[in-house]
C-alpha cells in the first residue's frame, strides 16, 4: 500500500499539483499548515505539499533508472560468472569487489566534483553501485540452478551454456532478482535523498526531498515542522518498498511456498 | 593461516590499485582538464596554463598516476589549490574527528544490534521478537540524516541540552577537551548507529536462530545448561561469524554516512572536507579523500576476513 501510495503521488503530480512547486511567494514564506497550503510553505513561500508530490517523481525516476543499470549490467555479469566458472568467475567477482569499495555516495561525490551535480550524476553513481550487488546475487542464485537435475539433463541433451542460461537459469533466478530490485529501489531513494541533501542531486527548481530537508534544517528554529514532511515521505516510501520486498520474498521463495 | 593472510593481503592491494586507477581515470575523462574545472569558466588562459604547469598536467597520465601513488607511499601529497595546504595535512586534521565518530558509531551499533538481535531470537514468535523486528523496519526506513535533524530538533532546539552542531576540538587550550569533544560526537554517532544497528540486528537475529537449531545447542540444554548460558556461551559465539562479515560490509555504508552526518552537524571531519572540496571544485582534495575512504573500507573488510578466519578455522580449510 505504501509503495502504491508513492507511485500514486508521483502519477498525480504529473497532472495536478495544489500549487506550482517552483512558484516563489515571499509574502507567504514559512506559513504553517492552512486551508490554502495544506502542509505550509517554505522559506521562499513555495507550497510544501506540491514539492512533496513532484519530489516523488524524482525519487521514482532515480530509483527506476539506478535499478535498471544495476539489473542490466549486474545480471549479465552474474550469469556469465556462473555459466563460465573458473577464471571468468574469479575475475568477475574481483571486479564486483572493486565495485563494493565505492559506496554510492562516494561515487556521486567524485562524479559530482568532476561533472557537476545533477540527477544524471546521482543515477550513474547509484546505478554503478547496484551492479556488483546484482552480480553477486545473480551468481549465487544461478549457481544453485546450475546444480539442478533438469539443467544437468539439458546439458546431457547437448544444449550450450548460453541456451541453458536463457531458457532455464534466468527464469529461475527471476524471483530472487525481483526481491533484490525492491530492496535496491528503496536504497536508491535514500541515496538520492542524501545526495539532494548535500546539493549533489536534482538541482533547483526541480523539487527534491533531500534538498527540502537541507532547506528545512536552515529554518529549524523558525519553522521546525518543515523538517517533518520530506523525512516522513522518504521513510514511508522506503518502508513501503522494504515491506513489499519482504512480501514478495515470502510469496516467491519456494521453501516458504511449500510451508504454506 | 599464513597462506590465507598472504592471499587476502594480495587481494586487498590489488583491489586498492584498481580502485586508485578508477579514481584517477575519472579525472582524466574530464571535459577539459583538472585545471579548467578547478578555476572555472571565468578563468583566463594564463591562469589555467599556470595551474596546469603547477599540477604537471603536461606530463603523461601514467607518469602523473605513478607520481601520485609514490607520493602516498612516501607521505607527500599534492597541495590543494583552494586551501593552499598539502592534502595530507588537511586529511590528518579531519581524521581526528571522523575516526572517533566512526568508532563511536560502530561501537554503539554493535552493542545495540547484539542486544536487540539476541533478545529477538530468544523471543522468537513472541511479542518481543515482533516488536524488535518492527523497530528495525522503521530504523531501516529512516534516513540517518533526517534522524540527525530530528535529534537536533529535540535535544538542541527544544530541550537545549546540547549545541545544534559544531566541534570544540580535543584540546582544552582551544576551548575544547576530551569530554567536550565526545559530547559533540554523541548525537552524530547515535544518528549513524540507529540505521546500522537496524540492519545488523536483523542479521544477528537470523544468525542466532540458525545456530539455535543446531544439535550441539540441544545437547547443551539436555546436559542441564540454562537457556541464558547456552545462548551467551555457545550460540552467540557461533553466530558471530556471519554477523562479523556483515559488520565489515556495513562499515562502507557507515563511512559514507559520516559524509552526510558531518554536514548535518557541521563537524570538521573528512565528510565536510570532501563536501567543501566539491563546492570549491578542488578535485585534488576530492581525489585523495575518496581514495582514503575507499582504502579504509577495504582495510576494514580485510581485518574482518582475518577475524572470521581466526574465529572459525574451517574457513581456512575451505580457502586452502
How does this model look, in words?
The complex is a heterodimer of chains A (260) and B (320). Chain A has ten helices and no strands. With 260 residues, chain A is mostly helical. Chain A is elongated. The two termini of chain A are 23 Å apart. By secondary structure, chain B is mostly helical. Chain B has 13 helices and no strands. Chain B has helices spanning 2-28, 34-39, 45-55, 61-74, 87-122, 127-141, 144-158, 178-212, 215-222, 227-264, 270-279, 283-311, 314-319. In chain B, helix 5 crosses helix 8 and helix 10 runs parallel beside helix 11. The longest helix of chain B is centred in the last third of the chain and has 38 residues, at 227-264. The model of chain B has no long low-confidence stretch (mean pLDDT 83). Chains A and B meet through helix 3, helix 4, helix 7, helix 8 and helix 9 of A and helix 1, helix 6, helix 7, helix 10 and helix 11 of B.
Short description:
The complex is a heterodimer of chains A (260) and B (320). Chain A is mainly alpha-helical and 260 residues long.
Uncertain runs of chain B: none
Residues in β-strands, percent of chain A: under 5%
Backbone shape of chain B: globular
User: DSSP helix count of chain A?
Assistant: 10
Could you give the order of the helices and strands of chain A? HHHHHHHHHH
Number of β-strand runs of chain B: 0
Q: What is the CA-based Rg of chain A, rounded?
A: 22 Å
Please specify the SSE layout and strand pairing.
The complex is a heterodimer of chains A (260) and B (320).
Chain A: H1 2-15, H2 48-84, H3 86-100, H4 104-115, H5 119-146, H6 149-156, H7 161-198, H8 209-218, H9 228-252, H10 254-259
Helix pairs in contact in A: 1-2, 1-9, 2-3, 2-5, 2-7, 3-5, 4-5, 5-7, 7-8, 7-9, 8-9
Chain B: H1 2-28, H2 34-39, H3 45-55, H4 61-74, H5 87-122, H6 127-141, H7 144-158, H8 178-212, H9 215-222, H10 227-264, H11 270-279, H12 283-311, H13 314-319
Amino acid at each position: 500500500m505504501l509503495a502504491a501510495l508513492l507511485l500514486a503521488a508521483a502519477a498525480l503530480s504529473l497532472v495536478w499539483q495544489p500549487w506550482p512547486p517552483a512558484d516563489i511567494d515571499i509574502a507567504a514564506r514559512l506559513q504553517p499548515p492552512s486551508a490554502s497550503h495544506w502542509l505550509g510553505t517554505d522559506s521562499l513561500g513555495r507550497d510544501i505539499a506540491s514539492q512533496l508530490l513532484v519530489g516523488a517523481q524524482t525519487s521514482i525516476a532515480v530509483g527506476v533508472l539506478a535499478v535498471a543499470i544495476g539489473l542490466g549490467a549486474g545480471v549479465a555479469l552474474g550469469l556469465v560468472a556462473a555459466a563460465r566458472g573458473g577464471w571468468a568467475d574469479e575475475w568477475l567477482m574481483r571486479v564486483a569487489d572493486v565495485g563494493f569499495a565505492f559506496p554510492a555516495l562516494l561515487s556521486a561525490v567524485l562524479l559530482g566534483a568532476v561533472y557537476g551535480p545533477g540527477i544524471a550524476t546521482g543515477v550513474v553513481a547509484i546505478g554503478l553501485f547496484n551492479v556488483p550487488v546484482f552480480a553477486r546475487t545473480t551468481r549465487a542464485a544461478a549457481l544453485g540452478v546450475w546444480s539442478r537435475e533438469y539443467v544437468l539433463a539439458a546439458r546431457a541433451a547437448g544444449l550450450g551454456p548460453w541456451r541453458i542460461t536463457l531458457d532455464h537459469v534466468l527464469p529461475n533466478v527471476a524471483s530472487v532478482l525481483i526481491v533484490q530490485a525492491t530492496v535496491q529501489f528503496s536504497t536508491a531513494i535514500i541515496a538520492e535523498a542524501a545526495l539532494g541533501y548535500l546539493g549533489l542531486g536534482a538541482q533547483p527548481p526541480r523539487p527534491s526531498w533531500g534538498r527540502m530537508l537541507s532547506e528545512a534544517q536552515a529554518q529549524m528554529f523558525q519553522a521546525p515542522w518543515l523538517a517533518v514532511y520530506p523525512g516522513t515521505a522518504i521513510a514511508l516510501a522506503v518502508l513501503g518498498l522494504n515491506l513489499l520486498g519482504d512480501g514478495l520474498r515470502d510469496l516467491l521463495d519456494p521453501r516458504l511456498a511449500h510451508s504454506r | 593461516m599464513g597462506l590465507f593472510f598472504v592471499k587476502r593481503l594480495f587481494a586487498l592491494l590489488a583491489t586498492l590499485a584498481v580502485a586508485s586507477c578508477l579514481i584517477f581515470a575519472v579525472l582524466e575523462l574530464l571535459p577539459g582538464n583538472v585545471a579548467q574545472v578547478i578555476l572555472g569558466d571565468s578563468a583566463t588562459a594564463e591562469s589555467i596554463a599556470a595551474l596546469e604547469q603547477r599540477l604537471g598536467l603536461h606530463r603523461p597520465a601514467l607518469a602523473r598516476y605513478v607520481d601520485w601513488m609514490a607520493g602516498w607511499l612516501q607521505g607527500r601529497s599534492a597541495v590543494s589549490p583552494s586551501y593552499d595546504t598539502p592534502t595530507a595535512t588537511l586529511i590528518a586534521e579531519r581524521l581526528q574527528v571522523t575516526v572517533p565518530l566512526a568508532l563511536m558509531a560502530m561501537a554503539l551499533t554493535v552493542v545495540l544490534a547484539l542486544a536487540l538481535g539476541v533478545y529477538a531470537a530468544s523471543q522468537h514468535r513472541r511479542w518481543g521478537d515482533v516488536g524488535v523486528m518492527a523497530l528495525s523496519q522503521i530504523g531501516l526506513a529512516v534516513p540517518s540524516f533526517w534522524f540527525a535533524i530530528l535529534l537536533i530538533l529535540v535535544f538542541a532546539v527544544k530541550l537545549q541540552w546540547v549545541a545544534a552542531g559544531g566541534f570544540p576540538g580535543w584540546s582544552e587550550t582551544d576551548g575544547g577537551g576530551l569530554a567536550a569533544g565526545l559530547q559533540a560526537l554523541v548525537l552524530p554517532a547515535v544518528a549513524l548507529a540507529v540505521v546500522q544497528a537496524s540492519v545488523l540486528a536483523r542479521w544477528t537475529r537470523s544468525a542466532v536462530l540458525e545456530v539455535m537449531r543446531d544439535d550441539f545447542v540441544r545437547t547443551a540444554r539436555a546436559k542441564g545448561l540454562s537457556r541464558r548460558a547456552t545462548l551467551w556461551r555457545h550460540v552467540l559465539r557461533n553466530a558471530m561469524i556471519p554477523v562479523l562479515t556483515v559488520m565489515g560490509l556495513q562499515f562502507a555504508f557507515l563511512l559514507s554516512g559520516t559524509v552526510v552526518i558531518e554536514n548535518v552537524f557541521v563537524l570538521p571531519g573528512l565528510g565536510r572536507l570532501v563536501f567543501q572540496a566539491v563546492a570549491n571544485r578542488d578535485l585534488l582534495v576530492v581525489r585523495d579523500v575518496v581514495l582514503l575512504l575507499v582504502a579504509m573500507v577495504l582495510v576494514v573488510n580485510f581485518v574482518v576476513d582475518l577475524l572470521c578466519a581466526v574465529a572459525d578455522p574451517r574457513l581456512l580449510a575451505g580457502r586452502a
